[in-house]
Amino acid sequence: EVQLVQSGAEVKKPGESLKISCKGSGYSFTSYWIGWVRQMPGKGLEWMGIIYPGDSDTRYSPSFQGQVTISADKSISTAYLQWSSLKASDTAMYYCARHAEPSSIAALAPWGQGTLVTVSS
Amino acid sequence: EIVLTQSPGTLSLSPGERATLSCRASQSVSSSYLAWYQQKPGQAPRLLIYGASSRATGIPDRFSGSGSGTDFTLTISRLEPEDFAVYYCQQYGSSPRSFGQGTRLEIK
Hints:
The structure holds two protein chains of two kinds.
Chain A: E1 3-6, E2 10-12, E3 18-25, E4 34-39, E5 45-52, E6 57-60, E7 69-73, E8 78-83, E9 92-99, E10 108-111, E11 115-119
Parallel strand pairs in A: 2-11
Antiparallel strand pairs in A: 1-3, 3-8, 4-5, 4-9, 5-6, 7-8, 9-10, 9-11
Chain B: E1 4-7, E2 10-13, E3 19-25, E4 34-39, E5 46-50, E6 54-55, E7 63-68, E8 71-76, E9 86-91, E10 98-99, E11 103-107
């Protein structure tokens, strides 16, 4: 079974750094792009960017470029999303999702269970 | 960037009825790279339709997608109680990928 398992909920203060993870299993991790999607409280889905774990080719939405860093460690089948200095406005649920096909152009399936990030002083 | 506009914002229907959800793009979606997702409260989204009209694995055939260019539709032929949720369209043919704002399907 293809599965993405994300790290647990985080509570942080403004200005702190954070790295959340997404571990893939049940498939060839290096062959499928993984994307990150933000969902702010009570709001819709926002596409943040994608990474190809095979060679770490990464593409960002202009809205998130420079705000977050997407990375992957193929040796442990894990993708990451990190912040160097969190803001209260980063409070959201973050989902990772695999591309449904081994292509840079594909829908997202399956999805991880989500990681809730709360940033509050 | 392609902006997707979904309508209506909220759709109130009864089980057994037919639901028609719309997704309109600000410019043509290349090669019909348009997907639909369902999200229930407290859950991650689930892929329903990709390529505008292909059902994802395990999706019941009461769900169907159609359209091309800038106008796309998700149809649920006969609503089951478990279908009441929020639905999002997404274009994945050009960067940045983008989602619509969602349509909430609620029980009337």
